Automatic annotation (TrEMBL), chains A, B:
InterPro entries: ArsR-like_HTH, HTH_ArsR_DNA-bd_dom, HTH_MetalResp_TranReg, WH-like_DNA-bd_sf, WH_DNA-bd_sf
NCBIfam families in alphabetical order: HTH_metalloreg (NF033788)
Protein name: Metalloregulator ArsR/SmtB family transcription factor
PANTHER family: ARSENICAL RESISTANCE OPERON REPRESSOR, TRANSCRIPTIONAL REGULATOR, ARSR FAMILY
Domain called HTH arsR-type: residue spans: 2-95
Transmembrane spans: none
Length: 95, 95
């Protein structure tokens, strides 16, 4: 059985994924496999305002799912290597 | 980009997983790969009362993650085939 401490960590990450707009943000950022995504490029396709996008991005960063790097005026986001794989493998039956 | 309707469905499933006790229940039920798990066998290892376990089980059933079958006095639970795989593959980078 999953131990309580590990279950609490995983639950916090799943909570970060339990919002449709955050999943859409993640789908945009994770499809940029070789590059970062500028925060400035997100509001348009999502139909959201910048502060709303920034709120959701902060939750994904705090959960250890996205990495944030500020350069000049904008912040750039990328998926933390391994973060999604480890959650995905938690869900899949052990071989 | 993930479409809004699909994102809403996925977010609801991740929300069902965003609780440590539900993840622990799922880890017990999913490790019984060839058999169902009786609701009567869950409170002991989890250290929870039966009504609390039943509350969490209902959320997992409503989210389409667990299947419930009542036989006699007890209800028996199993993972809906493909439910976790589809969530897991959502998280993993497309090949």
């Amino acid at each position: 059985m999953l131990q309580l401490e590990e279950a609490e960590l995983l639950a916090a990450r799943f909570k970060a994924l339990s919002d449709p707009n955050r999943l859409r943000i993640l789908s945009i950022v994770s499809s940029n496999q070789d590059a970062e995504t500028c925060v400035c490029d997100l509001p348009g396709p999502l139909g959201l305002k910048q502060p709303t996008v920034s709120h959701h991005l902060k939750i994904l960063v705090d959960a250890g799912i996205l990495h944030r790097e500020k350069r000049g005026v904008w912040a750039y986001f990328s998926v933390v290597p391994g973060a999604l794989e480890s959650l995905g493998s938690t869900l899949l039956p052990k071989a």
